[in-house]
Amino acid sequence: PKEIFLKDYKQPNYLFETVNLKFTLGEEKTIVSSKIVVYPRLEGSSSPLVLDGVDLKLISLKVDGKELKEDDFLVDSRHLTLSSPPSGKFTLEIITEIYPQKNTSLEGLYKSSGNFCTQCEAEGFRKITFYQDRPDIMARYTCHIEADKSLYPVLLSNGNLIEQGELEGNKHYAIWEDPFVKPSYLFALVAGQLESRDDTFVTHSGRKVSLRIWTPAQDLPKTAHAMYSLKAAMKWDEDVFGLEYDLDLFNIVAVPDFNMGAMENKSLNIFNSKLVLASPETATDADYAAILGVIGHEYFHNWTGNRVTCRDWFQLSLKEGLTVFRDQEFSSDMGSRTVKRIADVSTLRTYQFPQDAGPMAHPVRPHSYIKGAEVVRMYKTLLGASGFRKGMDLYFKRHDGQAVTCEDFFSAMRDANGADMSNFLLWYSQAGTPRLNVVSAYDAQAKTFSLKFSQEVPPSPGQPAKEPMFIPVALGLLGSNGKDMPLSSVYHDGKLESFANNGQPVHTTVLRVTKKEEEFVFTDIPERPVPSILRGYSAPVRMDSDLTDADLYFLLANDSDEFNRWEAGQVLARKLMLSLVSDFQQNKPLTLNSQFLNGIKSILCDSSLDKEFIGKAITLPTEAEIMDIMEVADPDAVHAVRSFIRKQLASGLKQELLDTVKNNRSSEEYEFNHPNMARRALKNIALAYLGSLDDPEIIELALHEYSTATNMTDQFAALVALDQKPGKTRDDILADFYNKWQHDFLVVNKWLALQAMSDVPGNVENVRKLLDHPAFDLRNPNKVYSLVGGFCRSPVNFHAKDGSGYKFLGEMVVQLDKLNPQVASRMVSSFSRWKRYDETRQNLAKAQLEMILAANGLSENVFEIASKSLS
Ligand code: DPP
Ligand code: ZN
């Protein structure tokens, strides 16, 4: 396979005006008839028309009503080429046969648990019919579906239902028409035995929209939270961005077999059931929060993705970065902004930064979701909320109905604000995480405080040398009383800028760091301040500074920016963990300094703080985060050290943790609201700490919490606490949990994941046994993500020095690739960081990658990741 580059983009020679699809859904095969009105982009030009098509059986091909002769076209395994189509506008009619029942890739049209559904992003439509399957081909669609009435009573597609009726032989049909132009990746079809939860939403301008969430009948009671989330999202997008829904009907369908989380098909979102179905008894607070965020995300795509779409797949961040940012903001407004920011930054550090530093490093363009959202956030940081809104308004005004690029988004932001954002676009093209170093100096005589920034972007594959980036640094200065000092002015670039704000004191400012090295000197600073730098994590960089431990403890106790309070604790924890890792590697005894324990204690016992924030602030950085900042990642040492600190904190703060558990139990009914969730979160983090102790009293406590829990959040947390120690109690409780919940596949997936992620020595054998458990099925992505994906997240077992973990993953990837290349390629990416480990592990992982690459009939998805990882 040949790699495709952004610079190779060419406008299509032919455009499509209308697309009429007809599906005859059957048990053996499905017939797809497609009638497309085609015209050349440039009048009078003639060139071959090349259509994409994979795994299709061509039955008939007509141009302007006439069947084409064999010499007039060419079909190979990926394309259908018409060598000399008519020179003007013409009608192309194609009939193909497909086999959705045999489609285990879950791309294109497939059958899942008895129902038909589609997944077309990015290139699934070419598995349905021959088409120019690229996002810059936007057309108006109708979709006619014909199927057995008893097996498939519900027939759905995009847009409005314009006709339906009965047919002979117990069949029926429905015709859907989508008035908006769309690219093929947003096409969707669903047919099956489904029922809906119905509601309505009246838009700002008075349009009454029918909302329907479709699931098998028995799951309907579990869709209440999804409906609540949808209505909240619709309201929020009107309030914050002035964006209204544009049709009279909005459908969501939940399916159990789905490669990703969800898909924003125009007016017919298709979701992984995991992100729709919830009840207090079966879903945790984290599930509820994820549902809120993803329902919002897919809904927000209606404007950012669907009305304005991507020109090509290198522009993925145009819709994903922007829409992830929008869903983050939505969740922040619905809960705690600081806690949401902390959670998002942790994700960035655990998943994105490691990738940025490895062979799979790529810039925001083509396809980094989370970093793309950080880039959008920086526009808002630089332009302010109202400037950002102006930019969004201009973006829609200019590009509604178009397929555009990241530069178009940038231009709208810049032009709407007349802003100078010179090298900001580098965020889209330069891969790697910038390093920002800060050195401070106080001049008591001149009463100035200087901050010297220097930045560097590490080399990445194909990009050996980098330019300096445009880094917005939000900053405040704390006085010795712990309060923010008012900022009056700063010298920079030979100019004195004052922070005038209509006579109001300014406490946080945003510095624009754009050069390799540059200095900012604050004036009128009466005493040496402690700087709070990168407030709210204003740019996705790795920052080093000359802040002392004392400064960090001071920020942890006092910073008015809650994010940086948390961050100060994390920096301290990272330093501590790295130094203990080095002790561990030198066989020195490990000890925990009392200052750290006291810092955690004072946060834990500070009743003025938000409980969810406390939970975050007493949680140590993940093992993946620490491995990412080590010269050579040492999973055993990192795991030993993190477990050691957890245990020390648990024994040193046992009473405080016990009190936290007792004082935060809830007796009332489950509610999804911030205070209740925060209380559960804190209680359960305390319980998890306690679970690290070898203490019969704690086992009693956890068993008590388990048996008295009235919701899944509390029940699962108790299970997690008990899962930490191998033995009979653990085995019994895991068996009990399965017996209770075996009828509910979403709960069973939690049970699989918990066991897969376990640090119990030699766990690979248990995981292998679970492959044969009736609860497991290699064809269901969620189960694979739980069991195989979960296993790869356990540093000790996945990276076991005997190679057993790598061998397991190698075998799984080869098996999975035959069924579902997308799922297999997600799994293989756990190998992509193999060079970060010691030589023994490197050789073991490399051998598995080579074994995978040597496998017969390897998919392109897996080939790409495995070969890039090795290069
Ligand atoms: N476009 C899809 C989404 O935004 C891909 N997972 O969720
Ligand atoms: Zn998305």
UniProtKB/TrEMBL annotation:
<dbReference type="Pfam" id="PF11940">
    <property type="entry name" value="DUF3458"/>
</dbReference>
<dbReference type="GO" id="GO:0004177">
    <property type="term" value="F:aminopeptidase activity"/>
</dbReference>
<protein>
    <submittedName>
        <fullName>Puromycin-sensitive aminopeptidase</fullName>
    </submittedName>
</protein>
<dbReference type="GO" id="GO:0008237">
    <property type="term" value="F:metallopeptidase activity"/>
</dbReference>
<dbReference type="InterPro" id="IPR027268">
    <property type="entry name" value="Peptidase_M4/M1_CTD_sf"/>
</dbReference>
<feature type="domain" description="Peptidase M1 alanyl aminopeptidase C-terminal">
    <location>
        <begin position="549"/>
        <end position="870"/>
    </location>
</feature>
<dbReference type="InterPro" id="IPR024601">
    <property type="entry name" value="Peptidase_M1_pepN_C"/>
</dbReference>
<dbReference type="Pfam" id="PF17900">
    <property type="entry name" value="Peptidase_M1_N"/>
</dbReference>
<keyword id="KW-0862">Zinc</keyword>
<keyword id="KW-0479">Metal-binding</keyword>
<keyword id="KW-0378">Hydrolase</keyword>
<dbReference type="InterPro" id="IPR001930">
    <property type="entry name" value="Peptidase_M1"/>
</dbReference>
<keyword id="KW-0482">Metalloprotease</keyword>
<feature type="domain" description="Peptidase M1 alanyl aminopeptidase Ig-like fold">
    <location>
        <begin position="432"/>
        <end position="545"/>
    </location>
</feature>
<feature type="domain" description="Aminopeptidase N-like N-terminal">
    <location>
        <begin position="33"/>
        <end position="186"/>
    </location>
</feature>
<dbReference type="InterPro" id="IPR014782">
    <property type="entry name" value="Peptidase_M1_dom"/>
</dbReference>
<dbReference type="InterPro" id="IPR035414">
    <property type="entry name" value="Peptidase_M1_pepN_Ig-like"/>
</dbReference>
<keyword id="KW-0031">Aminopeptidase</keyword>
<dbReference type="GO" id="GO:0006508">
    <property type="term" value="P:proteolysis"/>
</dbReference>
<dbReference type="InterPro" id="IPR012779">
    <property type="entry name" value="Peptidase_M1_pepN"/>
</dbReference>
<dbReference type="InterPro" id="IPR042097">
    <property type="entry name" value="Aminopeptidase_N-like_N_sf"/>
</dbReference>
<keyword id="KW-0645">Protease</keyword>
<feature type="domain" description="Peptidase M1 membrane alanine aminopeptidase">
    <location>
        <begin position="227"/>
        <end position="425"/>
    </location>
</feature>
<dbReference type="Pfam" id="PF17432">
    <property type="entry name" value="DUF3458_C"/>
</dbReference>
<dbReference type="InterPro" id="IPR045357">
    <property type="entry name" value="Aminopeptidase_N-like_N"/>
</dbReference>
<dbReference type="InterPro" id="IPR037144">
    <property type="entry name" value="Peptidase_M1_pepN_C_sf"/>
</dbReference>
<dbReference type="GO" id="GO:0009507">
    <property type="term" value="C:chloroplast"/>
</dbReference>
<dbReference type="InterPro" id="IPR038438">
    <property type="entry name" value="PepN_Ig-like_sf"/>
</dbReference>
<dbReference type="GO" id="GO:0008270">
    <property type="term" value="F:zinc ion binding"/>
</dbReference>
<dbReference type="Pfam" id="PF01433">
    <property type="entry name" value="Peptidase_M1"/>
</dbReference>
<comment type="similarity">
    <text>Belongs to the peptidase M1 family.</text>
</comment>
